């Protein structure tokens, strides 16, 4: 596409230089620039992308898009815009040919349960014979090909490039996590969702959204988008957890298309789970749809997973998937890496690695562990740095209320002092202790070893917060760290005396 064609979708734009050049790629990161790239200069929270123009030009950029007056080497075209984010939202999907309008798109939003739901949907759609791409916290999947990811929902440039790749490789469906940050920043511009799930709304990310109301309104944008004026596909459905009273009210207010609600408590839920049983071996429940009762005997457990599964059933039915395929797939679904994942090394106590990193996530997972625990429940957890500080004492309180042994440790401290984060966690732990045991061990590896050392026959050790992550982000840089690996090492050490 030529620069002239590309800028035709922009309004407030001034182009300095040759507009007949062909653009072959768009990047905002100078390290990803190649021949004939348009380099988009973004002033970020850490650095100003305009500073990297020389590197981008060296790497092959033939044009730059910027809000600033910049000096460029001769022959480089400058596209000057008023608002770089608005400009990207318009021209990047156009450049890639609107791939997010060509495939069926399922978006999942909510504080917790997004990754879990997308993985279940992927399996259902694949078993129904479709080619599926997935975008979310852990990685990008294009059928079986895996690519790394930096955000739960990538920015508009990375997202459109990924969607274009998926379209080119023949994906019928894209199932993706749509984070509140992404909705607020409009990273999903140019996407057209067909079915959207709302899992729940509980406290997180208040550092960014400031209030729960703003957080809810960011999520509601996904539901607004289902009835936007410029849609090209038909058959939109919102699938909403109606047991989440506050969140569902906002999401439903913003829904103007077909609606499927789900829940366990609410009497009017379209999909209402009955006879729910939570066992260590898995959850079971029944749900009625179109006057037929479907019975589910799952391998995953926990009330929270029953909710995730109800949302998934709703989305799959909205996409007209055969109920028999939905049932068979969900009954065989085992787990997502780092989500209530059992670490089995032949020890006589259970070790679970889980990604709970919000108050509600931690409460749910501790309650589930408590329901299936034969003896004591030992929890190792912490809170991330440079993230919502107000959740720290709340998570501390929940851990102290629900576990027998509480080991507070570091998560990803990022640029913060780990001791300071822990002091905020402990402000919640200490007043809530009721004769139960507590230790503060800043080093996460030591904390995991200590929990496993303390574990006795039939106890459960829950290592929460980092799930699948194989790194720890410290002030000094990112190091390799994997809760599961460390747990295995500790268990083996204990078994070998
Ligand atoms: C606050 C926020 O969202 N920041 C996002 C933002 O980074 P930033 O503004 O700090 O960018 P920056 O590092 O200052 O760089 C500015 C520009 O210089 C460019 N650059 C930089 C270095 C270089 O050598 N060359 C170069 O060109 C960068 O590519 C960028 O365009 O743009 C980056 C690229 O798109 C994002 O990866 C980054 O997400 C950071 C890592 C982040 O932690 N975001 C969190 C808050 C987030 O978005 N989370 C949500 C929800 C998670 C969930 O609950 O599931 C998510 O969707 O991930
Ligand atoms: N429906 C749910 N309600 C509450 N907690 C949940 C639910 N589903 C999962 N969890 C808990 O939250 C953790 C994270 O789950 P998952 O990764 O599916 O959520 P997510 O929404 O993708 O999170 P993120 O915001 O980091 O992308 C799980 O390990 C589990 O402890
Ligand atoms: N997507 C979430 C993940 C948090 C994971 C936890 N390990 C942490 O670092 O706080 C976030 O960026 O807030
Ligand atoms: Mg996720």
Whole-number tally of structural domains: 3
End-to-end separation: 66 Å
Which outline best applies? globular
CATH architecture of the largest domain: 3-Layer(aba) Sandwich
CATH structural fold name of the largest domain: UDP-N-acetylmuramoyl-L-alanine:D-glutamate ligase
Radius of gyration: 24 Å
Structure in words:
Belongs to the MurCDEF family. MurE subfamily. Keywords: ATP-binding, Cell cycle, Cell division, Cell shape, Cell wall biogenesis/degradation, Cytoplasm, Ligase, Magnesium, Nucleotide-binding, Peptidoglycan synthesis. Residues 338-467 form the Mur ligase C-terminal domain. The protein is globular and about 75 Å long. The protein has 497 residues and is an alpha/beta fold. The protein has an 11-stranded mixed β-sheet with strand order 9-8-7-10-6-11-12-13-14-15-16, sandwiched between helices. It has a 6-stranded mixed β-sheet with strand order 17-18-22-19-20-21, sandwiched between helices. The protein is built from 16 helices and 24 strands. Helix 15 (444-454) crosses helix 16. The protein folds into 3 domains: 3-95, Udp-n-acetylmuramoylalanyl-d-glutamate--2,6- Diaminopimelate Ligase, Chain: A, domain 1 (3-Layer(aba) Sandwich), CATH 3.40.1390.10; 99-332, UDP-N-acetylmuramoyl-L-alanine:D-glutamate ligase (3-Layer(aba) Sandwich), CATH 3.40.1190.10; 341-495, Alpha-Beta Complex (Protein-Tyrosine Phosphatase, Chain A), CATH 3.90.190. It binds ligand UAG, adenosine-5'-triphosphate, 2,6-diaminopimelic acid (API) and magnesium ion.
